[in-house]
């Protein structure tokens, strides 16, 4: 799971990146200028299972976050969706759009007061412009290929050309791709172009310390004080708890955002217990058990026999796999079983 943070200058994007990743960074790619770091997703269910199984290793799910530096000068506009940066961001699975919603004397005067709505709109417009450029290049290629095409090939190109024109016309009047009605076939065609507008986007308002106690975990856009959360991250758990109480900020903004990111990516979490390890894994919502097995190892999907499944709640109630089996709560499922969030699964396979 690869999630890119995007934001205008002085938005606090890199501070939020550090909050999410603990400040641990990879060396940036010289061409793409992308800094990447992995964040482990906290899940209290994993801790509960560990108390039952007493493993030697506990492994949470992971999300890789990306941070791109802003363009060298404001004269270049937003600057992310151009050249090498565009190529890099096409590889992301989703975007977190960081918007400045705080006043800070350390922010350069030229940045002016925060304008969250207009900043969010500016970034949305940049996404549209980048996709329009991609569609324009594809439309030209389709027109060139149509000159020598015959029969079914020509018919397909004509339909693709009409789709490209319709989608582009809507985008030119400010209608983002995500809000346009598309058939399954049309979505499949557009997926081949790796358009940025096809990727899910979550907006985060980076607020000031004076408003930190007013954060609303279930509100949208999500609000977080990245600067304060970064201060919390430098403290011991005891000091952090005391500091949070004094500031009126009880919930961890990092934990909230990581959970919301899994939702953004449309992922569900399942758990395994094997070889003295309890581990959390994620798959796309609606994935079957064979696909889930494949996230662990391709051999497990190829040689899939069955999955032994018990829900998290039943596992906690029964305390042992043997008791879950005795009560008939441990189910034997085939390869097409749709994995549910919280499933505890043992995969049987043969290769």
Features:
alpha/beta; 351 residues; 41% helix
In brief, what are we looking at here?
This protein has 351 residues and is of the alpha/beta class.
Question: Could you explain how this protein is built, in words?
Answer:
By secondary structure, this protein is of the alpha/beta class. Among the domains are: 127-198, Obg-related GTPase Ych/YyaF, coiled-coil domain (DNA polymerase, domain 1, Orthogonal Bundle), CATH 1.10.150.300; 267-349, Beta-grasp domain (Ubiquitin-like (UB roll), Roll), CATH 3.10.20. The protein is flat. The strands form 3 sheets. The chain has a 6-stranded mixed beta sheet, sandwiched between helices. Strands 3-9-8 form a 3-stranded mixed beta sheet, sandwiched between helices. Helix 1 (13-21) runs parallel beside helix 7 and helix 4 (116-146) packs antiparallel against helix 5 (151-172). It has 13 helices and 12 strands. 41% of the residues lie in helices and 20% in strands.
In CATH terms, what is the fold-level topology of the domain at 267-349? Ubiquitin-like (UB roll)
Q: Order of strands side by side in the largest beta sheet?
A: 2-4-1-5-6-7
The biggest beta sheet reads: 6 strands, mixed
Morphology: flat
Number of beta-strand segments: 12
CATH class of the domain at 267-349: Alpha Beta
Mean pLDDT reading: 86
Roughly what percent helix?
40-55%
Tally of helical segments: 13
Q: Tell me what the CATH architecture of the domain at 267-349 is.
A: Roll
Which secondary-structure class do the elements indicate? alpha/beta
CATH superfamily of the domain at 267-349: Beta-grasp domain
Quote the distance from N terminus to C terminus.
Answer: 27 Å
Low-confidence spans? none
